[in-house]
Write a structure and sequence with these properties.
A hairpin with a 3-residue loop joins strand 1 and strand 2 (about 15-25). The protein has 8 helices and 11 strands. The protein is α/β, with parallel strands linked by helices and about 350 residues long.
Length: about 350
C-alpha cells in the first residue's frame, strides 16, 4: 500500500495549459513535467477535471496512487486572497469570488494551498537554488510584468490580502513621444508594465513604425501588430536597429523600476524571468537592465560601503523555465503539508 504524505503536487494553471509536477518528501522532483489542456475560460469545474487528469498522470508516472499524495499547491493567473479569486483576468466568470482552494480540497480530499502565478514562479526559482538561503525577488516580463518576493527560508511574501508584489504597477517617470504617460491595462497611467510587457512592445512598435526613419523596415506592411511584435525578438537576435532600440528601452526601464523595488525590499538577489531568458541576446538585455538599475539605485545597492569587493545586489536569469511555477507550488505544498 502506498504511504500517505509521500508526494506533493504542484499545479500551474495557465491560459493554454496546466503544468504539473510531483515532488517527494525531500523536495526532489519525481518524473517529468505533465501538461494538460487548460479550460479556464469554460469555468473552474471543467478545469478541475483537467487537474484530476494531471494528478492521475503524475501518480502513474511515479508508480503510485493518489493515496500517497500529502497535499497540493495551486497557482492561478489572477489576483486572489486566501483561496478566493478577486479578479477575472483571463479566467471564466465563475472563478471570481469562488473559494477555489476549498473546492479543490473537497474534490481531491487533499489539503490545498493557492496563490498567484508570479508568487509561484518566485518560489520555484528559490527551490531550484538549493544553496541560496537569503531573499529572492523575481521580476518576469511577459504578456504583463509579474513578480514575487521570497523571504529567507523559502516563504513567499503575499501581504495581508495576498495582493503584494504587483511589481508591474509601480510608477516610472517615462513619457511617450508626445509627452504623455502611457496607459496601463490596469487602468492607471505610467506603470512599469506599460513599458515592459508584450502589450507595451506592441504599442512601442506601432509608434516606431509610423516614423519616417523606419519606412523601409521589413516589419512594415499589413500584418497585424501582434504578429509583428512576435517577430521582433528574432529581429533583435539579428541585431536589427529598430528591435534593438525597443528592447534596449524596455531593459533600461525595467532596471530603473527594479532599483526602486530593491530600495524597498533589499532582496540581495534579483531573478529576471520570462521568455527573454531563452533569447540569444539575453546578455545584452541584462546589460540594459543594469544600465537602468545603476541610473536609479543608490550606490549601497550596488556594492557594500564596508567591503567594496562585495556586490550587494546580484542579478541572475531564471532557470526554472516553464516548470518554475509548478515546482514552486509543489515545494510549497511539501513545506506546508509534510
Amino acid at each position: 500500500m502506498a504511504k500517505t504524505n509521500e508526494f506533493f503536487v504542484g499545479l500551474d494553471i495557465g491560459g493554454t495549459t496546466v503544468k504539473s509536477v510531483l515532488v517527494d518528501s525531500l523536495g526532489e522532483q519525481i518524473g517529468p513535467l505533465v501538461e494538460v489542456r487548460s479550460m479556464v475560460k469554460e469555468g473552474y469545474e471543467k478545469t478541475f477535471a483537467q487537474l484530476d487528469d494531471a494528478i492521475d498522470q503524475l501518480a502513474a508516472n511515479a508508480g503510485t496512487t493518489r493515496l500517497s499524495i500529502g497535499g497540493i499547491g495551486l497557482d492561478v493567473p489572477a489576483p486572489s486572497s486566501h483561496g478566493v479569486i478577486w479578479g477575472r483576468a483571463n479566467l471564466g466568470d465563475d472563478w471570481v469570488g469562488t473559494d477555489i482552494q476549498s473546492k479543490l480540497s473537497e474534490r481531491t480530499g487533499k489539503p490545498v494551498f493557492m496563490t498567484n502565478d508570479g508568487n509561484a514562479a518566485a518560489v520555484g526559482e528559490y527551490a531550484m537554488r538549493k544553496k541560496h538561503l537569503g531573499s529572492l525577488l523575481l521580476v518576469a516580463p511577459g504578456t504583463g510584468l509579474g513578480g514575487g518576493l521570497v523571504l529567507p527560508g523559502g516563504k513567499c511574501y503575499e501581504g495581508a490580502n495576498g495582493m503584494a508584489l504587483e511589481v508591474g504597477h509601480i510608477s516610472v517617470p517615462f513619457l511617450e513621444d508626445d509627452g504623455t504617460l502611457p496607459d496601463c491595462t490596469c487602468g492607471l497611467k505610467g506603470c512599469a508594465e506599460a513599458w515592459v510587457s508584450l502589450v507595451a512592445l506592441r504599442r512601442r512598435l506601432r509608434f516606431e513604425l509610423a516614423k519616417p526613419e523606419w519606412a523601409n523596415h521589413p516589419l512594415q506592411g499589413d500584418a497585424p501588430i501582434e504578429e509583428k511584435a512576435f517577430r521582433l525578438r528574432d529581429f533583435c537576435e539579428q541585431g536589427d536597429a529598430l528591435a534593438v532600440k525597443i528592447f534596449k528601452q524596455q531593459g533600461f526601464i525595467l532596471g530603473y523600476a527594479i532599483a526602486d523595488l530593491v530600495r524597498v525590499f533589499d532582496p540581495g538577489l534579483v531573478i529576471i524571468g520570462g521568455g527573454l531568458a531563452e533569447t540569444s541576446f539575453r546578455d545584452q538585455y541584462m546589460d540594459w537592465i543594469m544600465e537602468g538599475f545603476k541610473d536609479r539605485a543608490w550606490p549601497v545597492y550596488l556594492r557594500s560601503p564596508i567591503d567594496p569587493e562585495k556586490i550587494t545586489t546580484d542579478f541572475e536569469w531564471a532557470i526554472g523555465g516553464d516548470a518554475a511555477a509548478a515546482i514552486g507550488m509543489a515545494y510549497t505544498a511539501r513545506e506546508m503539508f509534510a
